[in-house]
Specification:
Blueprint lengths: L25 E3 L5 E3 L3 E6 L8 H16 L2 E6 L3 H9 L5 E4 L1 H11 L2 E7 L5 E8 L2 H4 L5 E5 L4 E5 L28 E4 L5 H13 L9 E4 L3 H9 L5 E5 L13 H4 L1 E10 L2 E4 L5 H12 L6 H11 L3 E3 L4 H12 L4
Parallel strand pairs: 3-4, 3-5, 10-11, 10-12
Antiparallel strand pairs: 1-2, 5-14, 6-14, 6-15, 7-12, 7-13, 8-9
Helix pairs in contact: 2-3, 3-10
């Protein structure tokens, strides 16, 4: 449901043949005029994990798209979500896989088309999670465990945010515990463009009367995996990330399930997704959406790629644009 963003594995698509498609095919443009398919297109994305093999991972995925579309598809890894929107605006990328805020900006600034929403285990929205390594300070009562359906791990929770044996990640819940943040608390925050790692947590803290500029020590980090590792390693006492970012590091630090406790959930945040430049022919845009929408069901390998690399279980063409509009209102709070 991140996904946050959004990442290398999202380039893969279903094995759906396109009869008669080639660089010379024509289709109808968004304005209703005939428009030839371009000889090549570029997809821009931000990976949700770090690693030296990201560029190599793009090769077979973009090759798969190229084969099924009949045109060359390039993949570009962007440094941050804002860079994906800039690439779209400059026509350096025609398909962008990104977070909700950047999707909103692409739609409003460049008239991009929202074609797919990310699905994580049945949901198109998620909570920002407050994590801590100090449950004595941030938990009212015992720490409990619940099963995270994505990988079966028993993760730790408190403040009653997961009352059942199976975790749901539904917020808001437990937010009053954020009041225990004090001037000596090191709080790891992601980039200001991150919904789960910065924006929704900042709004939640401000709503509780916390001065987010002066009432704690900010620890800048990049990525949801580092949000977890910062708490796990003791570099911060509190961090924020998507639900449940602990799954992204469990192979690296298997005891993260016990050492990093989730103690609060924000309001629900819309997942990111896929937007297409208005310059693309309408039939090409539709075909790309069709391929990507069917990817998760194309093979067990596809499901593994989506989860292992980006934490996604599917895409959906039920885009719920009103959720993106609402996030745009939240985004406006950080552009004043």
């Amino acid at each position: 449901m991140r996904k946050p963003l959004i990442a290398v594995g999202t380039l893969a698509v279903a094995a759906l043949a396109l009869a008669g498609c080639s660089a010379g095919d024509t289709g109808s443009a968004g304005a209703g005029e005939d428009q030839a398919w371009p000889e090549e297109i570029t997809i821009s994305l931000v990976p949700s994990v770090e690693g030296e093999d990201l560029a190599e991972a793009l090769d077979p995925l973009t090759a798969y798209l190229s084969e099924n579309l009949g045109i060359k598809v390039n993949g570009v890894v962007a440094n941050d979500y804002a860079a994906t929107v800039e690439a779209l605006g400059a026509d350096q990328a025609q398909i962008v896989i990104t977070d909700a805020g950047s999707m909103y900006n692409a739609i409003t600034q460049y008239d991009a088309q929202l074609i797919l929403r990310d699905v994580r285990f049945g949901a198109t929205s998620y909570a920002a999670v407050a994590y801590t390594n100090n449950p004595d300070k941030f938990c009212d009562g015992d720490v409990t465990t619940a099963s995270y359906a994505a990988n079966g791990a028993e993760f730790s929770y408190c403040n009653g945010i997961e009352p059942e044996a199976a975790a749901t990640g539904t917020g808001p819940a437990g937010l009053d515990a954020l009041k225990n943040i004090d001037k000596n608390t090191k709080v790891a925050l992601q980039a200001v463009t991150s919904p789960a790692g910065y924006q929704y947590p900042i709004v939640a803290m401000r709503d509780l009367g916390i001065d987010t500029d002066a009432d704690f020590v900010q620890v800048p980090i990049e990525g949801n995996n580092n949000a977890i590792l910062s708490v796990y390693n003791g570099d911060a006492e509190v961090s924020f990330g998507f639900w449940d970012a602990r799954a992204s590091v469990i192979s690296e630090v298997p005891d993260v399930a016990e050492k990093v406790v989730a103690f609060a959930y924000s309001d629900m945040i819309p997942n990111g997704g896929v937007v297409a430049a208005k310059s693309l022919p309408a039939d090409l845009t539709d075909k790309i959406a069709e391929l990507m929408d069917g990817y998760a069901d194309s093979s067990e390998e596809a499901k593994s790629i989506m989860f292992d690399l980006v934490g996604l279980s599917d895409w959906t063409n039920e885009t719920a644009e009103e959720e993106i509009t609402r996030y745009g209102e939240i985004l406006a709070e950080f552009s004043k």
